[in-house]
Amino acid sequence: MIGQDILVAEDEVKIAGILRDYLTKVGYRVACLERGDLVVPYVRQKQPSLILLDLMLPGLDGMEVCREVRKFSEVPIIMITARVEEIDRLLGLELGADDYVCKPFSPREVVARVKAVLRRVYAPPADKTLVAGDVTLVPETHQVLVGGHELKLTPCEYNLLKTLLSHPNRIFSRNELINVVQGYDFEGYERTIDSHIKNLRKKIAGCLPGKGVISTIYGVGYRLKAPSGK
Known about the structure:
Layout lengths: L4 E5 L3 H13 L3 E5 L5 H8 L3 E5 L7 H8 L7 E5 L4 H9 L4 E4 L4 H16 L7 E3 L2 E4 L4 E4 L2 E2 L4 H12 L5 E2 H9 L8 H17 L6 E4 L3 E4 L6
Parallel strand pairs: 1-2, 1-3, 3-4, 4-5
Antiparallel strand pairs: 6-7, 7-8, 8-9, 10-12, 11-12
Helix pairs in contact: 1-5, 4-8, 6-7, 6-8
C-alpha cells in the first residue's frame, strides 16, 4: 500500500525514529507525535490510514486516545505496549484497537502487521451482499445494517462479522478467526478474538435487544445463527 499515511504516536524518540525509517523505506508516509493529547486533533485533521499508538504517552495515555478516536473514526489502530499483562492487551482491544505489539519488538514484524491490517481494511470489496435474518453486510459500500440501523464497526469487527455471515451456522474456531482477522500467523492469545466478539455483540445488541445473533460454542469457537428454515 504505497503512499498511505501512518501516524506513529510514541514518546520514545529512538523507537519512533526506527519505526519511521522502516515504514518510510517500504513506501509509507510517516508522521510522529510524542504526546497523546496531540493525537486526536491530528487524526481529525489529517485522517491517517493507520495509527501505531504507544500505550504509555504523556498528556493522554494510549487507552484514552483510542477511546476518543473511536468516537469519530474507524481508522485502524495498532497498540504498542511494554505491559506484558494480558488484561492490558485485552482492554486495548475492547476499546477498539485492531492489534497490538509488545516491546521489545522487531521493526520488520511491525511493518508486516501494518501491511496486513492495511490489506484487510483497504482490499477491493467482494460484490456479494451477505444477509442473515436482520443482519446485512454490503461489501461494495462497507455498510453493515442491523435491524435497519447502520452499524459502525472497527476493521477487525467488520471482518469477523463478514466471515461469520459468509457461512451462517458454521462453527469457526478461535484460531480460524485469528487467521482471518489478523491476516498472518498470530501467536497471541485466543482471548483477543473473545474481546472483538464481545464488542461486536454489544453493538448488535444495541440494534436488536434480546436477540443472540452470535453464539459461543464452548470449547470450540463461535457461529452466527441463521434464521430458522434457512
